[in-house]
Amino acid sequence: MELFNFKNNNIKEVKVKPFKLEKEIQSLIEKNTETFFDLEFIATELTIGNYRVDTLCYDKENNSFTIIEYKKGKSYSVIDQGYTYLQLMLNNKSDFVLSLSKHLNKVIDVNYIDWSQSKIIFISQSFNSYQKDSVNFKDLPFELYEIKRFENDIISLNLHESSSNVSIDSLSSSNGKGVIKSITKEVKVFDEDEVLSKLNDEIIQKYTELKESLFSELDDLKLIVKAGYVSFSVGGRKGVAYLNVQKNGFKMHIRRGHIMNDGTKSKGYFTIDDPKKISKTKSWTWKSGAKGVVYEIRLDKNFDIDYIKFLIKQKYNSIIN
Question: Phi first, then psi: what are they for 187, rounded to 5°?
Answer without folding.
Answer: -100, 125
